[in-house]
TrEMBL record:
EC number: 4.1.3.4
Organism: Alteromonas alba
InterPro entries linked: Aldolase_TIM, HMGL, PYR_CT
Protein name, per record: Hydroxymethylglutaryl-CoA lyase
Pfam families for the chain: HMGL-like
Domain called Pyruvate carboxyltransferase: residue spans: 6-273
Enzyme class: lyase
Length: 298
């Protein structure tokens, strides 16, 4: 019993590019995002309003948002960890914002320099401003299946922080397997725990593909009724505060699987490969996406 339709949240321009060694120039980013729009992607994470000292790759996010097309029909979102980031995001005209918490204390400290509880306090002004400006807030929970510092993470810990974020006003929780260590059995146990109290319509999956498990885990998520999938064009991505973590699952690989299963997602795979090819021309490594490589070899 799979969902008939899935919506893809394209995070390559944020989660992908934040972890590339080279800082991509503004016109190249904009051309990439334009390519994503042409491919039919409707939810695009385009930047992040965090400290430029921590993540220099996202330092031009205000310029990115100022240059995005109006009336494209897509929703452009950005990460906002605190009030300062939220004010900058509003100023830049974002359509939607995202706060990001973790299910692991050590990861919270390394990623955003505060405890889980402090992070929730820092989100308060983000929620307040979001209400004032009529912006939807997405909530990320990192390390849902493993933490680079603490190892295994209990599903109960994920449930607690997810529920808190929903109570505070998030409309959707994106479950991050930040280091990509999760396997299908774990995914199933995690979702079974969460779905006892949280409806599937409020959950998204955000899997990194470090151990090649992401597609299998996504299949399990689909079987549990999850219909929002985060992915990055070409398999761009990683996390600067999770050593060894590789990119997000590749959007091409997800779209290929969904197409084969007859699940609609509205993405034109060839147009997507064209967008990925354009951005990988500016990077010093090959795309991780197997589907992209296969289609280009045809
Ligand atoms: P902090 O040092 O605790 O914050 O950092 P602070 O309030 O003490 O401020 C320190 C300095 O940062 C000050 O500047 C502030 O103005 C500045 P200074 O006086 O030193 O010149 N500052 C800011 N500048 C710009 N934008 C802001 C901002 N806030 C403070 N919003 C902070 C806290 C969160 C800012 C910092 O730790 C940070 O930027 N961390 C980066 C976090 C990040 O972007 N991580 C990657 C994204 S999360 C992810 O990838 C996981 C995800 O994909 C899901 C998954 O895979 O699991 C979402
Ligand atoms: Mg991520």
């Amino acid at each position: 019993n799979y969902p008939r339709q899935v919506s893809i949240v394209e995070v390559g321009a944020r989660d992908g590019l934040q972890n590339e060694a080279s800082v991509i120039e503004l016109p190249v980013k904009l051309a990439f995002i334009d390519g994503l729009l042409r491919a039919g992607l409707k939810r695009i994470e385009a930047g992040s309003f965090v400290s430029p000292k921590w993540v220099p790759q996202m330092a031009d996010s205000a310029a990115v948002f100022n240059s995005l097309p109006q009336n494209s029909g897509a929703t452009f979102s950005a990460l906002t960890p605190n009030e300062k980031g939220m004010l900058a995001a509003i100023d830049a005209g974002v359509d939607e914002v995202a706060v990001f918490a973790a299910a692991s204390e050590s990861f919270s400290q390394r990623n955003i320099n505060c405890s889980i509880e402090q992070s929730l306090e820092r989100f308060e002004p983000v929620f307040r401003l979001a209400r004032q400006h009529n912006l939807r807030v997405r909530g990320y929970v990192s390390c849902v299946m493993g933490c680079p510092y603490e190892g295994a993470i209990r599903p109960d810990a994920v449930l607690a922080v997810s529920q808190t974020l929903l109570d505070k006003g998030c409309y959707e929780i994106s479950l991050g397997d930040t280091i990509g260590t999760g396997t299908p059995g774990q995914t199933s146990r995690l979702l079974s725990t969460l779905l006892k109290t949280i409806p599937a319509s409020k959950l998204a999956v955000h899997f990194h593909d470090t151990y090649g498990q992401a597609l299998a885990n996504i299949l399990v998520a689909l079987q549990h009724g999850i219909s929002v999938i985060d992915s990055a064009a070409g398999g761009l991505g990683g996390c600067p505060y999770a050593a060894g973590a590789s990119g997000n699952v590749a959007t091409e690989d997800v779209v290929y699987m969904l197409n084969g299963m007859g699940i609609e997602c509205g993405v034109d795979i060839n147009a997507l490969v064209a967008a990925s090819t354009q951005i990988f021309d500016h990077l010093n490594h090959e795309p991780a996406s197997r589907t992209m490589r296969a289609l280009l070899a045809k």
